[in-house]
Amino acid sequence: MTLPDGRLLGWATYGSPEGFPLLFFHGFPTSRLELSPADSIARRNDIKLIALDRPGFGLSTFQPNRRILDWPEDVRAFARHTNLNRFAIMGGSGGGPYALACAHSLPPEMMSAVGVMSGAGPWEAGMREDMPLTAYTIAGAAAYCPRPFSLLSDALVGTLRWVATTGPAIKRLDALLDELEKRYKVPDKVKAPDDEKLTKEERREQFLRICFDGFAQGSKGFVQESRLLSRNWGFKFEDIPFNGVKLFHGTLDKNAPIRTARYIAERVPNSILREYETDNHYSMGNHVEEIMLEVLGRDPTDTKGR
Predict the structure, then answer these.
(1) Best exposed site among 54, 161, 279, 294 by fewest CB in 10 Å?
(2) Can you list the residues of the chain whose pLDDT is less than 50?
């Protein structure tokens, strides 16, 4: 769709076309394709899962000088364009701050629920001390030398795209995906007859699309968001008027340490934090179905297809 300022906003719909709308904000640095594997989950639970590309990612036009607080206006424009009067919101990882920005700036009556899954934390909560060296270096490069860093990122992504098509890389990637499938296997109790078994080639292609689609327009969006996430987000958690923001976080998360989620939960009025004692940033994906249902206020033990 075209936004009022002429920018394009990319989006994709999964699940049930007539289901209740749940807007999903993708992680960093992916795109609307991130939750495509959850299509069958959304279908069997009568959820219309709508994933939006943030500016500079996937299909959405890059927006110079944007702020995190600009995102709620894009969401408002999307809701108006698609005749959504009421919807739920869920942000995953790097999409978490944008879900909280909507809870801060959109009229509470527009949103039936706001959820954050493994959300990125603000630096004032201690992200700087706990974040991996690679992430810290990326944030510094984005802040102090964005142009050279963007050129370097473009070259690196291009190289990785090529490497991913070579025989040795394909074998290693298939082995990695096999290992991840075993390590983070979806329990049989949450599977349904409509869950399709992908071939190795289909699984690999899906994984690579998810990884690279965020860079479809180059790395400007990636560099910009690296800077945005490592600065003040532009609003106070204490000022969020939405009642009952739900946070879901693994205690073993290294990408976004649990103390940052606790920091947010202590400050957002009437928020609810559910901690997963044995999960990290990636294994939280095993709980995406129950989390979506809890965000929507449904009983996770009474889903369709089970």
Answers:
(1) 161
(2) 186-194, 303-306
